[in-house]
Amino acid sequence: MNSIRTYLVIMLMAAFSLVSFLAALNGYLSSMAEAEKMLDTQLAEASDLLMLSWSGEAAEPSPNSSSDILVFQVWRDGDLLSASPGAPVAPIGDFSEGYRYGNFSGYRWLSYTRLAGDGTAYMVAERADLRHTVAEKVVLESVVPLLLWLPVSAVLVWLLVGWGLRPLHELSRQINTRRSDDLAPVTLDNPPVELLRLIDSTNSLLARLSAAFEREKHFAAHAAHELRTPLSVLKVHLHNLAEELPADEPALIHANAGVERMHHLVEQVLDLSRTNPELIVANFQDVDLHSLAQRITAEAWPQFAEKNLGLSLEGDEAILRGDPALLETLLGNLLDNARKYTPAGGEVRVVVERRPNAVRLLVEDSGPGIPTGARERVFERFYRSVSEEGNGVVGAGLGLAIVRHIVEVHKARIELGESDLGGLAVRIDLPLADNRG
Amino acid sequence: MLINSVILVLREVLEAAIVVSVLLAVSRNLRLSTRWLLASLPVTAIFILLFSSNLDAITDAFDGAGQEVVSAGLQIAVFAGIVGVVFITELQRSGHVGSLRPLPLLMAITVICAMIREGSEILIYITAFAASGENGAAVFAGSAIGGGIGISLGVLMFAALRAVSAELSARLCVFLMALIGAGMVMQSTMLLEQVDWLQPGRELWDSSALISEQSISGQLLYAVFGYEASPGLVQVLLYAISVVLVALAWVLPHHFAGVRDAH
């Protein structure tokens, strides 16, 4: 049984039916015994009545006795003195006082014989099958309603079990409907004792999870922040060294590259730790993505020009709800990637396009692109392709991971594809309505 | 009349209910779907209708011994099914992966065979009284009470088998299947003796003073374990062989697994 409710209803109904039916059976047997006793007494009283009322006149019994319900005979010294119309000519009972079963007239009868002081035997007989039927009919009047009401009790049990399981449904609903980042304790009004331990355990687990997330977030932020100072000092010392050493000194070139990589990594780890969803969504504001893209592309232009790359921006004003700093990081990372991987003389294009329900941001380049099979993996943290490492591109493998994180925070959709320029096309649809509020 | 109906229907329903609940518990213990039971119900209903509507032809077959022979055949089929279920279950438990595939079909056939005879007897009994118009209320009430008690006991037995640990449940299921299976064989030998297809041999004991076959407890014991107050040598031998066969079906897969692991 996969449903607790179904299981409970079936088990309860089975137990209830078993007990009810056994009780009904017991009641039936007791009632039948009582009814038998009562009918026996009635038969004996009928013979007493016969004795008191018989006038002493002889009456001829009918040779063709019919199947009557009650018959009687009066015997003295072996002679049949009187009999009811339906009685046979042979004795219907014993010539000693008491009950006796016998067969005559095609039926089974129970007879009672009362002996008078003068030896007269007053015999009264009743059809056994009918007296059972009558008694059974009376008892069945109390048993049958029990059977007929059983479906009603099943419906009641179904409803009551469902009502009893409501706190469980409520708990399940609370856990199922909460946001993935909502680690607040579960609360139930007046919870049953059976659920108290479950609620306590769940809340304790949520508290531990929340603390672990906080620790992780603060650790990354603090570690990255603390690394900035020694890195700046290192950079100053390297700058000083560069004054004294020849510019093509290999050790200096490697040291500079290493420090640059470390600086980039620290900045990106800080970016990641800053993108805490619940804090960001609360600070969403109207952002014109086109003007933001204008500023970022203008700032990035010198680096593109240095590598002899073309950089263009297309589109018009497109307002959406979002976090300007994060959107700036997102576009900055995409442009940084495009610049790094597009060979000199290539072209990078940024398009901001207003669509019915979203603003599309497209960043495409004429670089080598990303093979289809690797497109999902580039979003993983610290993932770097073999060609990246071989080409000496500076990076920590966090750029696109941060992009995806920002996309998720904005409930947007990202897709990597092939560009008309021959390289990679990154399409991001930032929803308009969903970001509101 | 009510009490007669209760005993007759309870005797038939209890036997089938125990077979169904034990097989259902085996199925749940092995995490198998129980759809086989749902699928077997309409098939059983069709067979019950066919059996009861062709009862005269069945009775006249085998020189008038048709009903007994067919009933005995169905009971032996149930026993064979039980042996098969025990063997396949233990084969899986001994580590033979993938051996469970035929189990749902085997369980469905076993349950269908167990319910056809019982169901048709109940149907014939009730329809005969319904046609005569006599004691209708008592027969219906008695049948409902008997059926209700039998089904309730089956449901509660299933719950009990599921309530204990998986290991204990598996052992209890095998124990119950051995008793029910041997009981089926015992009942079939009695039916075959009635039509002189089998000689009972000399009577080994008479326990009618302890539990009469005609008493309520005697009738229920007959339904569940094939109780016979004065069994003959052949009956006792067949009963013992049936228990041994179920025991072998339980033990042999583990023995094979031990030999395989040793190699």
Automatic annotation (TrEMBL), chain A:
Location in the cell reads: Membrane
- What is this enzyme's EC? 2.7.13.3
One family name in Pfam for this protein: HisKA
GO MF terms listed in the record are: ATP binding; phosphorelay sensor kinase activity
Cellular component per GO? plasma membrane
Q: Which InterPro entries match?
A: HAMP_dom (IPR003660), HATPase_C_sf (IPR036890), HATPase_dom (IPR003594), His_kinase_dom (IPR005467), HisK_dim/P_dom (IPR003661), HisK_dim/P_sf (IPR036097), Sig_transdc_His_kin-like_C (IPR004358), TCS_sensor_his_kinase (IPR050428)
Histidine kinase domain ranges (all copies): 222-434
State the source organism's domain of life: Bacteria
Q: Which residues cross the membrane?
A: 7-29
All copies of domain HAMP, residue ranges: 162-214
Membrane topology field:
Multi-pass membrane protein
Q: Which residues form the signal peptide?
A: none
Top enzyme category: transferase
Keywords carried by this UniProt record: ATP-binding, Kinase, Membrane, Nucleotide-binding, Phosphoprotein, Transferase, Transmembrane, Transmembrane helix, Two-component regulatory system
This enzyme catalyses: ATP + protein L-histidine = ADP + protein N-phospho-L-histidine
**PANTHER family (alphabetical):** SENSOR HISTIDINE KINASE YKOH, SENSOR PROTEIN QSEC
Name of the protein described by the UniProt record: histidine kinase
UniProtKB/TrEMBL annotation, chain B:
Q: Where in the cell is it found?
A: Membrane
Segments spanning the bilayer are 6-26, 33-52, 72-91, 103-131, 137-160, 172-192, 232-252
GO molecular function terms here?
ferrous iron transmembrane transporter activity
| Keyword hit for Zinc-finger | no
- One cellular component (GO) term of this entry: high-affinity iron permease complex
Topology versus the membrane: Multi-pass membrane protein
Which InterPro entries does this UniProt record tie to the protein?
FTR1/Fip1/EfeU (IPR004923)
Q: Which UniProt keywords apply?
A: Membrane, Transmembrane, Transmembrane helix
Please state the span of the N-terminal signal peptide per the UniProt entry. Answer: none
For whether the record's keyword set contains GTP-binding, the answer is: no
Say which family it is in: Belongs to the oxidase-dependent Fe transporter (OFeT) (TC 9.A.10.1) family.
User: What name does the UniProt record give this protein?
Assistant: Iron permease FTR1
